[in-house]
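Box 3.1. Reading complex inputs
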Amino acid sequence: MNTVDNQLIASTTVAADYLREAEIAEIEHERTLYPDARAVGLEALKIVQKHRGWVSDESLQAVAEYLQLPIAELEGVATFFNLIYRRPVGKNVILYCNSVSCWIMGCEQVKDKIAGELGIGFGETTTDGDFTLIPVPCLGDCDRAPVMMVGPDQHRNLDRADLGAIFAQYREGREQDGR
Amino acid sequence: MTTMTEKTKVEIIIDDVAHQVNAGGNLLQECLSLGLDLPYFCWHPCMGSVGACRQCAVKQYRNEDDRDGLLTMACMTPVQPGARISIADPQAVDFRAGVIESLMISHPHDCPVCEEGGECHLQDMTLMSGHNYRRYDKKKVTHRNQYLGPFINHEMNRCITCYRCVRFYSEYAGGVDLAAQAAHHHTYFGRHEEGALESEFSGNLVEVCPTGVFTDKVFSERYSRKWDLQTAPSICTGCGVGCNTAPGERYGELRRIVNRYHSELNGYFLCDRGRFGTGYVNHAERLQQPQDAEGKTLDAETAAARLREIAGKAIAIGSPRAGNEANHALRRLVGETNFHGGFSAAEQACMDEIAALARDPAFHNPSVREIEQADAVLVLGEDVTNTAPRIALALRQSVRNRAYELADSAKIPHWQDAAVREIAQRERSPLYLFVNGATRLDDVAEANIIDTPSGLAREAFALAHRIHADAPPVGGDGEGNAEQLARIAEQLSAAKRPLIVAGAGSGQVELIRAAGNIARALHKRRGNGGQKPVDLCLLTGEVNSMGLHLLTRPENSLAAALDKLANGEAENLIVLENDLYRRAPHARVDAALNAVKTTVALDLLPNRTTARADLVLPVAAFSEQQATYVNYEGRAQLAWQVHRNHSAARPAWQWTGEFAHFREALNDCAASAPAMARLAEVLPDTSHLPGGGKLPRQPERYSGRTAMKANLNVHEPKQAQDPDSALAFSMEGVPARRDATLLASPWAPQWNSNQSISKFQDEINGPLRQGHGGALLLKRGAGGAGFHPVAETDGTTGIELAPAWQIFGSEELSARSEAIRRRMTDAYVAISPELAAGHGLSHGAAVNVRGENASVTVLACVRGSMPAGVATLHASDRDIDFHGLGARVSLAPAAGDTPAAQALDRGLGELIVSDLAREG
């Protein structure tokens, strides 16, 4: 008589080949924090996105197989959250608030200025791959609206700011890093 | 679900009127039980409440003096004794109108071209909530649709985000490939990428979706509105469960199958074989005229006379896929001694054992509803998903009883669906599967015991002994995994309502005997205090396997018939709706047919047996005739004729000329076979119908009556008469209402969709007055039999052969339906990776399977979970001599360029199992 571990039946090779050691290590760490693999799904997507910039179809499949989750369910998680990117994004993601406070404080004009500086609208990436512009409902900084985030940094009072200078920092940052 | 809740009645006041309702229920369900009109979307009678759509808002008042009240969601509000609520309160009405208006914001104005139109819950609720004019004038959200396979159309733009689809598909039916994606106004219900929906129950999305997101693709191709379909209450002929269906016909074609509610059997759901597997009725090759061996057409009278002429010296072989009346008429024509069952040798042995156990007072054969109530289940050798799919869906519900226990301990009502799931997490009542490999129920099983058929039987006998010492022990190394068996024995013994499932599909009588021993051990263990019978569900293969068995003498097997024929003991042979080549070794069938003077075959489609017949008589399909069938429980049910067949095809009982009317055939069957004594109970009492009148098969709004045949003749033809039933082939008569005698397709004022079924239930999920639940034929005897001795190992070695069943392809007739064919695999033999490697076979390669008297070429299907000692063979619709192979086989690679190998062009791509060995 042999008994079968249902978890093992569906084991595959795709995930093992695709995910990198560092990604697997981080996912395994997350796994220790939750009682159920389903809860690790979102964290795993964030980890893959951190390493690869976005979550491709292949990444999604690899994570689903690695965690033994139905891929349709994981896709539901991936597409539910705005900040899991299912399409490639630029090196810097601009999260630009167009919610009520920022709107009152003139974010529409700021958006036009961004378009002037970078030549992109919502959901678009600059041709050099440096920036992607994504709207976000609120960044929690309403007293200094209009607000946006570029990468990890919050930029406030954008109606008075020199957007060109802000974006230049990130371009320079890239050059300094030699990336 | 509601069966688990308290049924104490309490008084509540709805719009100043006092009503008695079930304590412990929710307000929505109780309002609907009372027949009140309260709109809803996300609630479903079988899936409880989640409070997502906000459509069922009512006003609740604190007491008699409270004039303001509070808006509350009826589906989420428990009934409190003395509660005062209002459906008609203007604020509640206004709130509901606002909800529907926002739900409808992006809904397209496409009702005229939508398949759901006319039976759409969303249309009904929109009208009921008073949302008549759209104020929203902005751009609507639109979606891209997906290809979801041959059964289901996808039109996401119509979605109102009620989540009923995923709640059914994944939570209720266990499907993993349909999920909610994205969020807020662009929420999307689909697969992660295009492809056929994998669940065997995907067709229920058509009925679960309140609007036209998921529609019946097969029906779409030859579409009619609900009100233009001629309908009658029918029974699914896809397997032995006997689900109730409502087929719809237009222009002489069977257009679709929808569920017909039966509180004890199928409830609200069907499987995809049942729903999409009846296309064969419209098959271009349907036999239409009597034919002789040369294919020359005969007139019906000559042919019928010829049948009667040869019957005197004939043996007849009955059919498990034909009704009792057809089998009985043939039995009467040739005499009981010359009437033989049409089962394979293995199935005959299983059926004999099943019929014996079905009369044993120690056991109870549970209905589908009762299966859902089991709190510990053992499935022995049966691949239930593929042999009796509706029961697999019920087993999936049984594991939730642990969740209900936990909910009870936390005082959560069972209808609080999300809360019950939340408290249970992954806790489940135990389900143990003794199988040859991975199955589609593994995800809810506590453990799979995987072994060869003989190994499974040994372990099952050992398990019985562990449960009660009186059960015979297994000698030798019977118990490979004592620890696990001990755990299973403990769980089954501790359960309040344990259930053992086995069936003829395994083809292994020892497994059925072992199942009997386990159930008997459980019964003995209960002791004299509680002599309650133990649930022992024994599945039969085809729609009337049980009926045929009851009509056949024990010694009159198919094998005995073939022997008699080969030995010249009978001159002629009459075969009723049966392809003998599917039932017996081909050489033995050939020997019998060669020895016979005249063979008459009655069937509806050409097959290998009709090809050898000297006279072929065309018979009516299930929807073209009235018949009774006996399901796995021994429940006889009546399937009414839905439409007429305009060719010479007729019910087999008519061909025999024994009876002038259906009732005569039925009553004579009941009178002449003791086991059938209660058969007449399936006939409803229609004596009270006004003016001895008839009930219409066509809805009141049936259109085109005077025009639909105008291309043939401008004179309106006389309406066809139906002398055999209380139904008329017209729209005249008394349409079905709550207290009507018969109900095919439910309809109530303001309720055009299938949700109108609540208007016919005395309470939600309760029985229908029109249900005619059928008649349970089998009487249990006084004294139970004893334990069966443990099977001796026969000492032979080699690879054990067992059948592999497929929901799409194993059943003879549905396998000839176009939609089903698109989901069928080719013939294959499933083997373990070790066996494959040992024989130089790779997945998908052609392989010769050699047995005792036959050798067949099929595709190798390599499955990681299988043990090495067994091969399971699926014949699909290929000419495979399964029974010629015997019990043990050997394998050898087949040259890929032989005609036999090249004919296997369908591949294995449609196979949905979790353990396929991947290529490369």
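In summary: The first strand of chain B starts at residue 9 and ends at 14.
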